[in-house]
Design brief:
Residues 28-260 form the Aminoglycoside phosphotransferase domain. By secondary structure, this protein is of the alpha+beta class. The protein has 9 helices and 10 strands.
Length: 343
Amino acid sequence: MNKEPKGLENLFPYLETKLKLDPQSTVISQFKGGYSNLTYLIQSPSGQYVLRRPPLGLKISKAHDMVREFRILEALKKAGYKKIPDPIICCEDENVIGAPFFIMEKVEGLILRNRIPEGMDLNEDYFRNLSQNTMDVLLELHHLELEKSGLLELGKPQGYVERQVHGWSERYFQSKTDELSEMETVIDWLKANMPKNENIGFIHNDYKYDNLVLTGPEDPGIKAVLDWEMATVGDPLMDLGTSLAYWAEAKDPDTLKMFNLTYPAGNFSRQQAIDYYASKSNLKLDHILFYYAFGLFKVGVIAQQIYKRYTLGFSQDPRFAGLIHVVRACGKTALKSIKTEKI
């Protein structure tokens, strides 16, 4: 973690007023590894907390709306959903740290990034069980009751697929920096091949291993799901498609292995993940190729947006300089999948 992040000076008196945290014994440090919203650890004698705020620079989409993410966590908690950090306080006053932010419970556990942590031995059985647990929790989310819980109010499911295709296409052109013909060909295909049938469920929209807090290296149980900023009510198969786009296999380009530790032996393949989901859901997966291609395209656009911020000087993180290669790989992989009809 990076110690003593800049721009948080006003946070200490805020924490003292709202949470009774002593500024002299409170330490704030930034978590490394994220590509979008910024996350900080707040440590004090009375406990540990996590703070989330938008990235520095351009305000690109509701994906960076911290107030909305806080409201989603509150709604899920009210609906009885257990696999979330407890939301504690939300601050809409940009004078405190320069942007809205919220504070939540810190859930202790293991978070897997794109490499197995040094000194940790995770075998094939571990990853097989993790793959299954991951799909089970996704299915649980998609099967949440919507009306009585009030979750239905968090989204507009009618026309969701069409809005997503057109919305992410617009975001691509707004953040475009390089000529990548594959991405634009995929846009045309998606617009021409949208499934007519719409499904409705509560969806996470960024569901992958590094957004899961696991019990530990001995047990791949899922304690909590993180990063709810893009959650809404929409088509669960769009959610599955995004997860599949992140579900890298050993044979995939290295650039697509940057975001998910699904490529070591023991993990489900993408097809196994699809088959498992299908066995536990009453949704028809006839058009799963569309959802997978859309997922890849969306991941490419997210990388493009971050890369654009980097080119404009809003971030000096050296990892962002190579994200244009991720965009290119997403476009090529999606187009290849469309042409071969293989996932």
